[in-house]
Request: fold
Amino acid sequence: MREDGIDGIPRRAVVVGAGVVGLSTAWFLQEHGVEVTVLDKQDVAAGSSWGNAGYLSPAFSIPLPEPAVLRYGLRTLLSADAPLHVPATPDIGLWAFLTRFAAHCTPRAWQRGMRSFVPMNAECLDAFDALLAGGVEAKTESAPITAAFEKPEQAADLRHEFEQIRGCGQPVDTTELSVAEAEVPQLSDRITSVLRVEGQRYVDPGEFTRALARSFVERGGTLRTGFEVRGMVRTSGQVIVKSAQDDRVSAEVVVLAAGAWLSKLAKPLGVRTPVRAGRGYSFTVPTDQPVPGPVYLPAARVACTPYQGGLRVAGTMEFRPVDAPLDRGRIEAIVRSARPLLTGVRWEERHDEWVGGRPVTPDGLALIGATKLPGAYVAGGHGMWGLTLGPLTGRLLAEQITTGKRPALLRPFDPLR
Reply:
C-alpha cells in the first residue's frame, strides 16, 4: 500500500475541471495507462483558459505577492482606473485573504517563493512540447515579449525585477532596443524605450485548450460537461464524486482542478490555504497592421497578444466573487490606460469582452498534490500562470499519482502546507 492509500497504480481517475490544468493532468495520466473521466460544470475552456493573454512566459512567472505590489496597491486603492481593484465590500473572508496576501509581500517571502518557481519555469515549455509531440494538434508561437515604456523609470523597475529573478537562479535574456529597432508598428510615439524579453512563446489559449480536449477524447478519455460537483466521499477503495443532481462518478483517484472554485471543494479535504478569484478582463480589437508578437505595457499592467488577426488586450486584477457580472468600467479603464501607448488599434470595434477568475493564493504558490482524503488530489491556485505552468503541473501530478512519490519540484506546492 502506498503512502496515499492507493493499492498500486490506479486504473481509473476523475478530473474535475476542463481547463488547461485539468486536461493536462488527464492527458498525462493517460500516458501512464489510466482511464480518465473529465467533469466540468460548464464546458471546455469556459474560464480563464479561454480569456487570458496566451503568454507562455517563464520570464514573467513569479509569485504575485511582492513588495512592489503592496506599495502599488496601497497607493492606488481608491483609483477607479487602477489595474489592481478591490471594491468596497463587507466580505470578511476577502479582507482576511488580502491581509494574508499583504503579509507575504516581503523580500524574503518573495525570494523563497521565487526559488520554488525557478525549476518549474525551467521545464514548463518542455511540457508543451510533450503534448504537441504526443498528438495535440495545436501550435505554440516562439516570440520575444516586447515590454514598452513611456518613462525611463518604468524600464528601471522591470530591469530591477529581472535582476531579482536572476538572483534567485533563473536566467532571463533581455535586449534593450530603441523603438525603431523593436519593429512593432503598434507602439505609439509616446513610447521612449523598449526591453525585449527573449525565449518566450504565446498561443491562442482557447484553441490550445480545445485541441488538448480533443486529443484527450481521441485517446479514449471521457468528457462530461454540465456536471457540477457538490462533494465527494471515499468508500471501498473508491472516491465517489457527487453532482448537484445527485449523479455519481467513482474512481480510485480524483483530481480537483476547478480553478477559482477550488477552495469550495478542497476545504473539506484539509486544504486550508484559500483560493480567491483575482479576476482578469480581456477583449479583442482589430489593428491596421499585423501584430508581430506579444507586447507588454508594464506601467498599465496590460498584456497584448496577436490573436485571430487582431490584438487580444488583457489586464486588471479585480478581487470580486468569481461569478459576479462583467464590470464594463474595468474594460474602459484598460482602454484608457493602453490607448495612448498604442497606435493603429481600432478600440471602438472591440469584441469578445470577457472576465474570468484567476485562482490566487495568499502566498503566491499553487496547490498541487495529495489531500487528507486518500485518493483525492488538487491542482490549482496558479494565479496568472495557469497556462504557462498548467501542462507541467499535469505531468508532475500524473507522475505522483501513478508512482506514489511526490516529484521534488512539487514539494513547495503541498496543498496541506
